[in-house]
Amino acid sequence: MGKGRKESTGVTDSIVRGLLEKKGEKVALIDLRNIENRICDWFVISHAASTRLVDSLVWSVEDVVRRETGVKPCRIEGRENCIWVLLDYGDILVHIFQKPYREFYDLESLWADGRITFIDDNMEKKG
Question: Which class does domain 5-111 fall in?
Fold first, then answer.
């Protein structure tokens, strides 16, 4: 899609760091690049227990990505209620949920054709 692979990878790494910095839970990367007619190249998904914590994750992602890469989101949706916030970085969409809504919408199952990788607190990738 729009960005080069190297730039997308740098932004994705910064997004993950922003989520982990504020204790985002069950951080998942979904690589959609092998899916025809995809809406973006990557999903990054995480959740938190409350509206306040979701908002904290959103601020952290924005801050870390801007500081490390100079990139700002094209658009942010859902910040008013912090149930499900979407940060649009063009080829990368960041979904930050409150836990029950993540379980309900289950994006990992909906986009199971992509390659899903979970990230632990040390930014180590797991299957």
Answer: alpha beta
